[in-house]
Amino acid sequence: MPYNVALIQRFLPPASRGGAGHFAAGLAAALSARGHRMTVFSQDPAPADAAWRVVQLPGRTRRTAPLTFPMQIARVDFRPFDVIHAQGDEQLVRHAGRPVVRTLHGSSLDEAAANGVRARSLKHLALHTWFYGGELLAALRADAVVGVSRAAVRHLPRRAEVIPNGIDTAAFAPDGTPKSPAPSILFVGELDSRKRGRWLASEFLARVRPRVPGAELWLVSPDRAEGPGIINLGTLGDRALRDAYRRAWVMCLPSAYEGFGRPYAEALAAGTAVAATPNPGARDVLEDGRYGAIAHEERLAETLVTLLTDAARREALVAPGLRRAEQYDWRRVAEAYERVYARVIAGAPGGTRGGA
């Protein structure tokens, strides 16, 4: 039965490459293809190829958006919809008798601990602790709560289920593109953030390239780093990014915190070995090292050297990684959310609606 779904997501690609925005766009596309009417409420415009509707709310500014967006959402009339699916910033939403599904992409409490303490930033710690209060309030008001990983919902005092983030496995699948001639490590994300790309660059220069002459570190990032073997690719389009995943020998994302970590799943789907530092997303996607290498900071460079110099070790990760990636295909993710929608709509006053 088709549903009329209101999807709340403050930022969308390509204006933002954040994981939650990509999730909203991917889920809207997958559910639209299955016959559902999808309307996304956002402060960003619709992606150029979107086959789903976007209601762009005005006044997006980077500094004040987390405060202004909830107030904008509070003024939206959601009565025409069957279900409201929120991704964040919906603490003030007026339910209008419609059931609400809340997806948590991570835990602000865990991010505060991972990043605030590491950076010794009381401001960062206080900000994410405040965000956790909003997450908690929204989750307690929702009819169903979903986490993209087990860790994303571990601090909630209520039942939640896990449905992972999605990727287009067919688009990322190996297509015969050869690996790069030089040993290569791919990084995707901001350098000066919890992704820790700049730290990876320093480890590469000090401890990897001296042992693997000619090795390259490819940075897909709006930021830049300099040094022998470092190649700044900038921000790539989808096709070029998939090509970089396929050509790289290893993908490394040494984040201090990830609620899921979409690049891990994308690399697995591309048939590329993955290396990470321990964080909730990496542990979940890579199943504590079964599908990729997880190494503490002091061992990461050694792990990268091993992966770059041991072809058998890299190859042993490819087939299991491809099988693992299938769990994140958008078809499976969309089907799982359809079941959640059906359950909460059937339990709402007035029973099952569908396709209004």
Topology at a glance:
Blueprint: E1 4-8, H1 19-33, E2 37-42, E3 53-56, H2 65-74, E4 83-86, E5 100-104, H3 108-119, H4 122-141, E6 144-147, E7 161-162, H5 169-172, E8 184-188, H6 197-208, E9 216-220, E10 230-232, H7 238-247, E11 250-253, H8 262-269, E12 273-276, H9 280-285, E13 293-294, H10 297-309, H11 311-325, H12 330-346
Parallel strand pairs: 1-2, 1-4, 2-3, 4-5, 5-6, 6-7, 8-9, 8-11, 9-10, 11-12, 12-13
H-E order: EHEEHEEHHEEHEHEEHEHEHEHHH
Name the shape in a single word: globular
What is the beta-strand fraction?
Answer: 5-15%
Largest sheet: number of strands, sense, barrel closure = 7 strands, parallel
* Distance separating the two termini: 11 Å
Q: SS-based structural class?
A: alpha/beta
The number of E-state strands comes to 13
Radius of gyration computed on alpha carbons: 21 Å
Structural summary, described in words:
By secondary structure, the protein is an alpha/beta fold. 40% of the residues lie in helices and 15% in strands. It has 12 helices and 13 strands. It has helices at 19-33, 65-74, 108-119, 122-141, 169-172, 197-208, 238-247, 262-269, 280-285, 297-309, 311-325, 330-346, and strands spanning 4-8, 37-42, 53-56, 83-86, 100-104, 144-147, 161-162, 184-188, 216-220, 230-232, 250-253, 273-276, 293-294. A 7-stranded parallel beta sheet has the order 3-2-1-4-5-6-7, with helices on both faces. Strands 10-9-8-11-12-13 form a 6-stranded parallel beta sheet, with helices on both faces. Strand 12 (273-276), helix 9 (280-285) and strand 13 (293-294) form a beta-alpha-beta unit. Helix 1 (19-33) packs across helix 12 (330-346) and helix 3 packs antiparallel against helix 4 (122-141). The longest helix has 20 residues, at 122-141. The protein is globular, with a radius of gyration of 21 Å. 47% of the residues are buried.
